[in-house]
């Protein structure tokens, strides 16, 4: 008996916990598999089939709502606990724990009120079950699920779909292979028209899971009986049919005691000329014992499968908890450690992007290998070094006194003007790399799974990273412009040393052989060839500088921006975090409410499954 109590009680406790988490029969979600593995007894029947009377006869108490039309509009999971003789009967609801009902008329009212809380005061139905436990010396240990009565026509205040909705709900329970079907059919109707038998035949064609119950035997026409059904000739099941004699409406109106009604039922079968030979296997008391024994044997057989589902679910939930993250400590030191660990996780991903472990870092090389050279090629040196512009700049540099040998000031102005064009590509390289680094920060924040729990910290890290990148960009911009300015501030001496030699080559050789220098023909400083030669010389110098900057600008950008981002992206953030108080740290670890809800649900399920595993282990030891 102890084992049976433990097994049936265990199943009911797990079902109650599943319902509290939204995981119940008919609930189509990823966590309803445990419920599906739990053996249960579903009570199925058409409206006015006597379904409620059968349940009340088994309980021995008047406690179910009554009325016309659809009265049961939510599944009622009813667990019966047998107590010692002399103890007071009472009931408890799963949604009102620790409150005991000794007045069963209040139980009826609470069932009705709890139904209305979900469905409203209409004839709507809901798949969310109500859990009710009854403790009494007049019951056997048993769990039953009372389902809405099958109907063929929608009544007032009900949608036309209610007929199908009820059948779908009932079917969602009884089609599961671990569900025992208690099919209620009235004896004063042809068994071929029974809604319960029709549905059970569809989901359990062999009758292996179905117990047939025939009600209203005392209301059959005189001279007729239901022996063909009860003895299995009209419709055979694997389990014996059980006949029930319910209280009449007059008895109900007179509040006839259920214990007295049971005695009358026993007397009816014992004295019946038709059913006397079956009396020991008829009646609500026999039905309850039969179901209790069968349910206990099924549960015992299913324990290995239940254990397997529980262990698998625990592994999945543990993995889910690791993914969602464990709860954060309230200790400031632990919170600071968590923040630093999350920063390191982000920083690791960011570095992987730069170093090639993840995509994105190659775009920086693309700036140096493609964008910068293309920008340098597009600089307007041809226009700047055109003959007209060279003549203009050289003439302006000479002023009132023309140059004697080489136009040094003209050369300087031409070169400085040309070198100023390098500022644009240099700054553009800095901006392009800055944009890439910002994108990599954004991607790294998004790819850091651990940070998704904490939107505030996620935003703070992103903001700190962008702030640091701005600082690195400014330093990079200053450095590359310095490189350009350095080239303009000091021209290579060798370039100028070549100029007099070139002028001499254009003079009279006699000047080098003791001739009269005054007789040497002067180079015409207004000739087109003279300015073309100047432009060509400046172009050569600019090309030399272009080659230099093509190599040094990337070095400066990497040193000032990329290297600094790798080494000290969050250094300032670390300093600021170290100065924060516990309250400020807690604000950074303020999680996304939806994520907190998911983890809370996951933790509750994990606790349920572990507790269920422990209870199954303890029951197995008792066996």
From TrEMBL:
Pfam families: Dynamin_M, Dynamin_N, GED. Residues 531-623 form the GED domain. Its main location: cytoplasm. This is Dynamin-related protein 1E. Keywords: Cell cycle, Cell division, Cytoplasm, Cytoskeleton, GTP-binding, Hydrolase, Microtubule, Motor protein, Nucleotide-binding. GO terms for biological process: cell division. InterPro entries: Dynamin, Dynamin_GTPase, Dynamin_GTPase_CS, Dynamin_N, Dynamin_stalk, G_DYNAMIN_dom, GED, GED_dom. Forms homodimer and may homooligomerize and heterooligomerize to form the phragmoplastin complex. Binds to PHIP1. It comes from the Eukaryota.
């Amino acid at each position: 008996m102890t084992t049976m109590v433990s097994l049936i009680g265990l199943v009911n406790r797990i079902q109650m916990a599943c319902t509290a988490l939204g995981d119940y029969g008919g609930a189509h979600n990823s966590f309803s598999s445990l419920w599906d593995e739990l053996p249960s007894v579903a009570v199925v029947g058409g409206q006015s089939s006597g379904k409620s009377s059968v349940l009340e006869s088994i309980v021995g108490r008047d406690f179910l709502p009554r009325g016309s039309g659809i009265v049961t509009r939510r599944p009622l999971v009813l667990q019966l606990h047998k107590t010692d003789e002399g103890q007071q009967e009472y009931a408890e609801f799963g949604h009102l724990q620790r409150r005991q009902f000794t007045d069963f008329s209040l139980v009826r009212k609470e069932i009705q009120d709890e139904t209305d809380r979900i469905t409203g005061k209409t004839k709507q139905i809901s798949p969310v079950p109500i859990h009710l436990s009854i403790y009494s010396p007049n019951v056997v240990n048993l769990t039953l699920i009372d389902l809405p009565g099958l109907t063929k026509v929608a009544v007032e205040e009900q949608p036309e779909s209610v007929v199908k909705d009820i059948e779908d709900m009932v079917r969602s329970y009884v089609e599961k292979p671990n569900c025992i079907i208690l099919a209620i059919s009235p004896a004063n109707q042809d068994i071929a028209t029974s809604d319960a038998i029709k549905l059970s035949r569809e989901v359990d064609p062999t009758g292996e899971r179905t117990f047939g119950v025939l009600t209203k035997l005392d209301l059959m026409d005189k001279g007729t009986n239901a022996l063909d059904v009860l003895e299995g000739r009209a419709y055979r099941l694997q389990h014996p049919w059980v006949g029930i004699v319910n209280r009449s409406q007059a008895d109900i109106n007179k509040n006839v005691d259920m214990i007295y009604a049971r005695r009358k039922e026993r007397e009816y079968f014992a004295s019946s000329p038709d059913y006397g030979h079956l009396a020991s296997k008829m009646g609500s008391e026999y039905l309850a014992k039969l179901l209790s024994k069968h349910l206990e044997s099924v549960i015992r057989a299913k324990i290995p499968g239940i254990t397997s589902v529980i262990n698998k679910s625990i592994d999945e939930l543990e993995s889910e908890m690791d993914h969602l993250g464990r709860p954060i400590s309230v200790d400031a030191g632990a919170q600071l450690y968590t923040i630093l660990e999350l920063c390191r996780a982000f920083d690791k991903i960011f570095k992987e992007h730069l170093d090639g472990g993840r995509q994105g870092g190659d775009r920086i090389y693309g700036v140096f290998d493609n964008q910068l050279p293309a920008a340098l090629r597009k600089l307007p040196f041809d226009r700047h070094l055109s003959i007209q512009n060279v003549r203009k700049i050289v003439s302006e540099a000479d002023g009132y006194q023309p140059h004697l040998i080489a136009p040094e000031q003209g050369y300087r102005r031409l070169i400085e003007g040309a070198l100023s064009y390098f500022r644009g590509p240099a700054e553009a390289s800095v901006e392009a790399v800055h944009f890439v680094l910002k994108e990599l920060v954004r991607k790294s924040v998004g790819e850091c799974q651990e940070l998704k729990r904490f939107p505030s910290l996620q935003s703070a890290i992103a903001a700190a990273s962008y702030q640091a990148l701005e600082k690195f960009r400014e330093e990079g911009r200053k450095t590359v412009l310095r490189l350009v300015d350095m080239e303009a501030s000091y021209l290579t001496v060798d370039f100028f040393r070549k100029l007099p030699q070139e002028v001499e080559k254009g003079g009279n050789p006699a000047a080098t052989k003791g001739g009269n220098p005054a007789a040497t023909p002067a180079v015409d400083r207004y000739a087109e060839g003279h300015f073309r030669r100047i432009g060509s010389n400046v172009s050569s110098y600019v090309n030399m500088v272009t080659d230099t900057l093509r190599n040094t600008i990337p070095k400066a950008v990497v040193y000032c921006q990329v290297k600094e981002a790798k080494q000290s992206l969050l250094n300032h953030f670390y300093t600021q975090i170290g100065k924060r108080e516990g309250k400020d740290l807690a604000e950074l670890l303020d999680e996304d409410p939806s994520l907190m809800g998911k983890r809370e649900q996951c933790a509750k399920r994990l606790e349920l499954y572990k507790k269920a595993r422990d209870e199954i282990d303890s029951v197995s030891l008792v066996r």
